[in-house]
Design a protein that fits this description.
Elements: E1 19-22, H1 34-47, E2 54-64, E3 70-80, E4 88-95, E5 103-107, E6 115-120, E7 125-128, E8 156-166, E9 169-178, E10 187-193, E11 199-205, E12 211-226, E13 232-245, E14 251-261
Antiparallel strand pairs: 1-13, 2-3, 2-14, 3-4, 4-5, 5-6, 6-7, 8-9, 9-10, 10-11, 11-12, 12-13, 13-14
Length: 279
């Protein structure tokens, strides 16, 4: 199930882009083995993100080019937690007119390649995003298609790099090596806060191991949700995600305006055949 453009994207993240749950302070394995300790921290991070079931959000995407010029897009995201596999997400663009009706559907998986489709209304067709092309930019942003997948522990190999303070918060610094041979990244480095296991920052390194992008998460808010087992749990969501491409000078910001949980979404709401009619 998610970090995703919540999980995402976006949560994540991105779903969806990045989603992390508040729970009682969990225990992570204390060991001198950097791989084992890194894995333990990320397993706890994932364990805190179970039980949110479904969510919807509206957001603004701000694109900034190398000259500092900015354009805005409005979109909505829907996310579905899937037991035993990665999460599902649907993103629908509402403005501006040239992208209105564009819809992106993503099925994240734990042990296999994700399934992703993009509906382009100008062409009136659904385009499948192949595994080899998931390092490409999503809708002209600095997010790649692979960034929109939910966070799943088996997708990476981990290494604990130490502790570091970010904006007054103690964090663990974790290296993530993608297992996907088609990933556009040689590694990711994430800073996880030690109190709630939220991602505060992630750096992306290209295939040549050069720093490519930095993603910052800010303005976290806890959202109480009644989970299927009857427990009331609060899930953290970052209201702002800012990603900067150090090699091109471009940047993208995601500003989430509203989150809703347990909205009654089901598998039927995430159907490739319905992409052309997505609302």
């Amino acid at each position: 199930m998610k970090q995703s453009m919540t999980t995402l994207l976006f949560g994540a993240t991105l779903v969806g882009f990045t989603t992390l749950a508040v729970a009682d302070q969990g225990t992570t394995e204390q060991t001198d083995d950097p791989a084992a300790r890194g894995l333990s921290i990320m397993q706890e991070r994932k364990a805190r993100d179970t039980g949110w079931q479904s969510s919807e959000a509206s957001l603004e995407m701000l694109l900034t080019n190398a000259q500092g010029q900015t354009s805005s897009r409005q979109l909505r995201m829907k996310n579905l937690e899937v037991a035993g596999d990665g999460d599902k997400s649907l993103s629908i663009f509402d403005t501006p007119l040239d992208v209105k009706g564009t819809a992106f559907l993503s099925f994240s998986h734990v042990n296999t390649a994700d399934d992703q489709w993009l509906y382009l209304p100008a062409l009136k067709r659904v385009k499948r995003i192949s595994s080899r092309n998931k390092s490409g930019p999503f809708m002209g942003s600095e997010f790649a298609y692979e960034d929109l997948s939910s966070f799943e522990v088996p997708k990476y190999q981990y290494r604990y790099l130490g502790e570091e303070e970010i904006a007054g918060q103690a964090t663990w610094k974790i290296e993530n090596i993608p297992n996907d041979e088609y990933s556009g990244y040689s590694k990711l480095v994430s800073w996880i806060d030690q109190q709630e296991y939220r991602v505060l920052k992630t750096q992306y390194y290209d295939r040549k191991s050069a720093l490519l992008k930095t993603l910052q998460f800010s303005d976290y808010q806890a959202h109480p949700v009644d989970t299927p087992n009857g427990e009331r749990k609060s899930f953290w969501r970052a209201n702002q995600l800012s990603i900067e491409n150090h090699q091109t000078g471009k940047a993208t910001q995601l500003i989430f305006k509203e989150y809703r949980f347990n909205t009654g979404l089901s598998e039927a709401d995430f159907n490739k055949s319905k992409l052309k009619r997505a609302r």
